[in-house]
Amino acid sequence: MEQEKATDNKMGTAQVGKLMVSIGIPIVFSMMLQAASLFVQIIQEYQEV
To answer: Mind telling me which residue stretches traverse the membrane in this protein (predicted)?
Structure first.
């Protein structure tokens, strides 16, 4: 029972490097997608003028 609880808590038991990658990649991807969407929106506004 005690071992099951330890494996369920990734933030407490996983290595820092693996956590940085597993959490960081989705965040970076989300920021890139948001920036690309903003860039496309700005380009569309300038083309309409």
So the answer is: 21-43
